[in-house]
Amino acid sequence: MHDAELALLSNYLVVGAILFGLGVIGFLSRRNMIVMFLAVEMMLQGVSLSLVAWGRFYNDLAGQVLVLFIIALAACEAALALALIVVLFRRRGTLDVIAWQDLREADQPPYAEEALPEEPAELPPRWPRLTPAGVPPEIPREQTDYRPHV
Amino acid sequence: MFEIKTLLVLIPALPLAAFVVTAALGKKVLRQRSHVPLVAALAAAFLASLGLLAQVYRQSQPAADAGPASGHEAAGYEKIVPLWTWAVVDHAYTAGERGLLAGPAESRDFHVDVVLRADTLTAVMLAAVTLVSLLVAVYSIGYMHGDPGYWRFFTYIALFVFSMAMLVSVSNFVLLYVFWEAVGLCSYLLIGFWFQKPEAAAAGKKAFLVNRVGDFGFALGVFLIWITYGTLNFHDVKVAPDPRAPGRTVVYHDPADVQNAKVAGTQIGGVLGRTTLAAMAERPQLYHGAALAAICLLLMLGACGKSAQLPLHVWLPDAMEGPTPVSALIHAATMVTAGVYMLARCAPLFAASPQARQIVAVIGGATALMAAIVAVTQTDLKRILAYSTISQLGYMFLAMGTGTVLGIAAGMFHLVTHAFFKALLFLGAGSVMHATGGEIDIRRLGGLRRAMPVTCATFLIGALGLAGIVPLAGFWSKDAILLAVRQQSAAGPGSTLYAALYLAALFTALLTAFYSFRAFFVTFYGPTRIPPETAHHAHESPRVMTVPLVLLAVGTVVVGALLEWNRVLENFLARTPSISFLEAAAHAAQPETGFDWSIAGWSTLVAAAGIALAGALYLAAPGLLGQLTAAMKAVGLYGLSAGKFFFDQAYGLAIVRPLEGLARLSAWADRVVIDGLVDRIGGLPPALGSWLRPFQPGLVPFYALAMLLGLLVLLGTMLI
Questions:
Q1: What percent of chain B lies above the pLDDT cut of 90?
Q2: The whole model's pTM is what?
Q3: In a 3-state reduction of DSSP, which class is residue B517?
């Protein structure tokens, strides 16, 4: 009985640790703010999972209750963080955190992007030319401004 | 009727209250009514001082049934009013080891109490100070009208009158020093009243710095008194164990407690107390030491600074940059006489030290002569009066230098009369300035008697009083001084010296008459000359200014004869214990002197000659003036007089320049050495910071990595 419980616990803990580690790696290696935020969420889930597992192991509901709180708080935090990211994006027009590196000490040299190796220019896709049929789809003006790549 | 104690406290307390009220409310509430508290307080204080004078007069009369003062006991009257204890240092002095009072070793506390005294000298000074202050305050209502600093002016004046009243009524050298400095402060503030004017600011600074020299001497004198006497009180006190606090002592000041056996305790003889005076009379040889001579000379240095005597007189002419009522009140009638008051107060010390006394007399005589010579060629009306003040203060010093009751009474007499006529002259000069838009160069004025009849008449009375024409104030007091000096020249130590000083004083009287009437004739007679830019404005001053002038003129006419009559002032002052001691000593040696007709004749003659000369040169024969000036220029005397004996230049060369050099050197050392060191030390934190600064590159992943590594290090240490 006890051994079975322990084995079950260690399974959950391993999954939680994997989640947490993936989150850390993601946070350190990505520069897109939304992705970094998702990585942080993932770390949170890993910790929550191990909390639930320990609560189950000790037959103590406090672990689950705590996780409920974490989920509620994570929701609030997500709302705040996404709002902040929107503001930051409006300021710089990009989600890259490196765009905010001028918050460094005044006399420090800026971080220079390493020049990426030149990739051969991809040829523009060649769409088949068809005769227009019917009315062209109407795309609202603000939508094209907001999503310049569309 | 009020008791002496109430009156004595009331006289300084009223101006103090006026000071507090004006300082608190003057700027925002009272504004152009700022004079109200001061004038009311001074009127009340003057009445109180009259009451005090009457009470002291009544109490100081010797009881009819008492016999003549027995032996060496100092007769006279003093009332000591202790208020509260200011400072106590336990076991500060061991009597018997050092000083005059050889005897069994005995430990004493340094005990400074706030103690006032009422005696005849104080009563006379208080009456003179409050009366002149009152009149000048009323005059200032008109003179200072519309000045942006109106409330400030009356605040300072109130503080000054408080300090001056305390100065003359304290009974302790420490408090004397404190209020000595306080009046100096008021003088500084009022000289620099128009502080935006560079000359006024510089004059205030000069007065303060020159006074520092004298005050330093005074302070040393006070220290030496403490070492020599073991007390700083003027009066005797009795020290007894405190019944309420065991191990501590309580000091009894009241003469009734001290003399009666009512309180058991150790009696400590004050510097001017009856015990010390009796000991001085019994064992005079004990007191003729170098210590006493040094004390006297140091006190005299202090008096020279405050009373503008050689060689510290240079601040007073510059002090005329202040408003004219200030010149009248502080720099003519009251504050500058503080030195004379101190010499009169310390008369027994000077009586015991003939050398110091003679030095005082020489300084007084030399200052009187020097200042009178300078006053002859000045062209600035207020400067003439300033040098005249210095000269008259020299007369008072000369009188104090005789060291006799006659001399001291004469000096105090001259102090009182001088307060009247010199305040009158200054206020008259202020009235002229008020009318002509601040013009005080007498070469640009003339014939003002038509425009300003009241000012002219009162100025004439003041000038006659200063010149010493019978029966005005100056005549009586100057004759009293001449008489005292001539009496000393008859016999005794330094009789030749006093004879020379007598001749110098007579010659000074001639010059006095000449310069005062030169100023009068040039300003008020001759062709009408008014600066063209203010010609429409030349008019008689308002009533609020002319009434004090008239009152002071009346005072100048009557006060001399009033106080001379029946020698009332001399007899009154002789009721001060320290002066009555001199009288007891003098009665044995010198015969009673009455009114001296020969001195009266001589002084009237020289005064008349001076006036006649001034009239001849400036009204009748201007050609003669040119010839005389040329002759004097040829001798070099004219340049010496116009250049004020080159004291300022000499001090500039000998003292100011080297000190400026030292100041520059210090400034350089401060800038380069000290500031340099501080800058170096101040450079350390930035250097440290520049080393740590790369850890903030502004890259969020770097921060995250640093956090993670730090966390790992922490976990690692926990595992280990």
A1: 42
A2: 0.78
A3: helix
